[in-house]
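Per-residue structure
===
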Amino acid sequence: MRIPRYYLDQPLDAPQTLALPDALHRHAVQVLRSKVSDQLIVFNGQGGEYHAHFTEVNKRDSTIEITAFDPVDRESPLAITLVLALIKPDKFDFAVQKAVEMGITRIQPVVAMRSVLNLKASRAEKKMLHWQGVINSACEQSGRTKVPDLLPVISFADYLQSEDDTLRLAMLPEATQSLAGLDMPDAQALSLLVGPEGGFHDDEVALMQAQSVQTITFGPRILRAETAVIAGLASLQQRWGDL
């Protein structure tokens, strides 16, 4: 049986005894039916993970004892920022989840000209908390030991005009340059730009070209945004990463 993993946003050490936060307690006890002495793994996104077991399990709370630290590293050698235009909420969640599983380092949500979702300020904070939950859960499931950064939503134009020391790659159907023809960036730092439903607007493509964004092709077929995220990240990891 697979040992469950939980993300804890707090300092961790071994040995250490601590109470699980309410949300994790409910999942562990009410969903997974965890009992005293059952094993679990906890991590805080700072690298490595901790082995622990339940010492108390009650209806309203539970306590665990951390017994050992494992410095395991399952992170990609690439530092990849996913720059993803806002798309339909369920599709965006899916794309974020799979991007975390594929090893990205940062997520930069952007509002593109053809984005179907345009967050109002009153909803932005709620959405950020929701996306952070998706990220944390994907880290728990995939065995990651570091949690990707989630950057505040900005316009795509503002992102393009900001300083960025990564190799910026945009997936465009009309591009002619293939990934195989590119050299590995010196700093192993990349940004993958994925557009919304309907693709990037011509004005955005022109701005990308003016800002030295490298446009690359991923075959003759038109991919959905969430598919493009998976295909693009898998290609980057296979070309320069750990696939």
The radius of gyration is 20 Å. The mean pLDDT is 92. The chain has six helices and twelve strands. The longest helix spans residues 121-142.
